[in-house]
Model the fold of this input.
Amino acid sequence: ERQEAAKKVQTFILPTEEELEEEGILAPADRNERIKSVIATLADFKTLREEGRNRKEYRNLLMSDLCKYYEYNEFLMLQLMDLFPYGELVDLLDAQENRRPVTIRANSLKTRRRDLAQALINRGVNLDPIGKWSKVGLVVYNTPVPLGATPEYLAGHYMLQGGSSFVPVMALAPKPGERVLDMCAAPGGKSAYLAALMKNTGMLLSNDASKERTKALTANLHRLGVHNAIVCNYDGLAFPKVMGNFDRVLLDAPCTGTGVVSKDSSVKQSKDEAEVLKIAEVQKRLLLAAIDATDHSSKTGGFIVYSTCSVLVAENEWVVDYALKKRHVKLVPLGVDIGKDGFSRINKYRFDSSMSNTKRFYPHTHNMDGFFVAKLQKLSATIKTPKEEQIYKSGDNSDGESSDHEAEEEIEEEKELEEEEKLGEEKESEPADDMTEEMETNDNQNSCQTDSIENSAELTEVTKSKKSKSEGAAKKVKSKSKKLKSKKVESVPVEGV
Done:
C-alpha cells in the first residue's frame, strides 16, 4: 500500500529496518535500480522524499547499497561520496570496474611515432594517437600479437605505459644538459621519457627504494637506449644527503592506488583510514626531501613535480598544502591541456587558491587511470619559520564560501526541517534531533576558527534555543544559514587529517 501510494507522486519510499532484514541477498539488478532511485530522490529531495524522512537516512541507504553492489568498504566509499556528486560517483565506480585501454609511448630516442604506428599496423594492431595533448602516445584497441613480445618492443621502440603517467614527465619538462632526479623510478617508464626529453644529455639519477625493482628499471633503460642515467637504490628520504642541487625532481610517490582499482580490485577492501594517514605521512616527508634536493638558484629549473595514482584528497591536495606551509615553494601551471583542476576547497576544508594549478585525472572523464599531478617551483633554500607558517595558515587560502554539494544539501534539509516544524508532523522530533547534532558538530568544527567571544555567544544562543522545539529549530536554521554565508573558514592544518 505504501508503494502504491508513492507511485502517484513518484516518491521513493525508504525500506524499513524489518524490510531490509527480510530482503536478504538482493539481486544486483534490483540493488542497482534502488541506487538510481535514491540518487534521483536526493537530486529533488523536497519533491520526491518520503514525508518524515531526512536526507541522512537516504544517504545512509545509498552508501550501504553502493558498498554491497561495488564491493567497497565503508571508509573508502564515504571518502568517494565526499569527493563527487552522486551521479558522477556512480560513473566513476562503473569505470573502475573495467580496465583502461592499453597505451604505449613511442621512444623518440629510437623512432618516431608515425613510423612505429605504421610498423604495428602492418602486424595487425588496431591503434590511434592518444590525443592532441601528447606527441608520443598511442592507444591500442586490439592486437593479434602480444605487445610485450614484438620485434619493435624488444628493440626498444616503445614502452607499455599508462596515458596518465605521461603527464608528470610532460609537466616537469626537463631540458637537455640538466641534472634531474627521478626519486621513485621503477619500472622505468617515466625515467626513459625524461631521458628522451633530455635527448640523452645531462645527468638523470633514477632511484628506487626497492632493490628488487631496480632490476626491471635497469633492464628497461638498457632496452630503450638510455645512456645518461645512473640507477641507484636509496630510500627517498636520504636525499639531499646522498646528492642534491638538482635542476628538477620528479616524485611519483607511493600511494593507496585508489585511482587504479581496475588493475587491483583488492584496494576496495584493504584500504582503511589508518593506512591512508600512514601513507600520507610518508608522502609529506618524501615531498619535503624532494624540495630540499632541488636547486632553487638553477637558471633553467628549480621545479618539483609531485604525482600519485590516487584520487583521495588526503594523499594529494593535503600533502601539497603541507609542503606550501613548510617550504618556500609555490604552485605553477603544469602546461598540459588536459585534466580537471585540483580542489582549492572541498567540503569543510580550504587550501591555497593556487591549488587550481594542480590537475586531477579520472577514469570516467578522461578514460585514463585516476591520477593527481602538481608542479612546484622552489623559491628559497631556507625552511619556513613557525611565524611564516602561521602567516601562510591565515593567508588568502580561506575563501569563506560554503562547502560543496554537501553544504547545499544541508541548507535544503534545514528548510525542509523548518517546514516540518510548522506543519507539526508526528516525527518532528527526529529531524530536530538531527538538526541539533549537525549544529553541535558545526560548532565543534568552527571552534578553532572563531575567538572566545564568538564561541560564548554561540553557546548562549544554543542554550536559549532549547526552550521551545519549534522556535529552536527555526532559530538554528537561521543561525546556520547566516554562518554559511558570512563566516570565514580557515585552512585546516594538514597534521589534523
